[in-house]
């Protein structure tokens, strides 16, 4: 059997160095979620390979101390490969399951991080299928959690896209007006400057190394981006034509203007990046 790890590592984005922190005596799991609140990391769920967990564990980054938390209210069922999102003083758990989800529709649970009380969130609208190995991201501008991909109880990989409005607790399905990533699970995602990025994942037959962007919001352009508009639509590929003479910020600005909003677009990598096994696209 493969050994399960309970160690924790920290990566400094300033010095670009790793350091090993304190290991946990009771968090030897995989498929758990991790998010942050104040000075704590919050771990929920996971699996040992034989059993599934619905326990909550805190790691205090100031005191370097692990703590298994006692909560009240109805806990989510034991699960792994779910997603956790912290909004204000609430942690939302979305989806997940055992090897496959037990429900037809995705369940949503909320832990009040002040009172440590659980409650199941009753949502309206068009809820997504229950799923595991999906991704979720929170957009503070629209107060919305976005869900993409994963696989359902029939082990079918998904490429659907949903939004949960936290103001109304209503689900809506998002229709992509342009091309979108192929169905997949175990991908990664992040939300940056008004855009959702999808990276990698697998569809059961193939592992992906592509990057996709869905732009929600058009940001107010900077002076450099406004100046870049003088060459917008004048050339088919601004990076090939002007990439050697224009600053990267200008080329990026032109491409952002051309992409626009409300649609997925596949991010282009250089030949060197495409041929690498782990592309440093965001370096």
TrEMBL record:
Q: Which Pfam families match?
A: Kelch_2 (PF07646), Kelch_KLHDC2_KLHL20_DRC7 (PF24681)
Keyword Repeat included in the entry's annotation:
yes
> Which terms are listed as keywords in the entry?
Kelch repeat, Repeat
What is this protein identified as? F-box domain-containing protein
- PANTHER family from the entry? ACYL-COA-BINDING DOMAIN-CONTAINING PROTEIN 5, FIBRONECTIN TYPE-III DOMAIN-CONTAINING PROTEIN
Q: What InterPro entries does the annotation carry?
A: Kelch-typ_b-propeller (IPR015915), Kelch_2 (IPR011498)
Top-rank taxon, per record: Eukaryota
* This protein's record includes keyword Repeat: yes
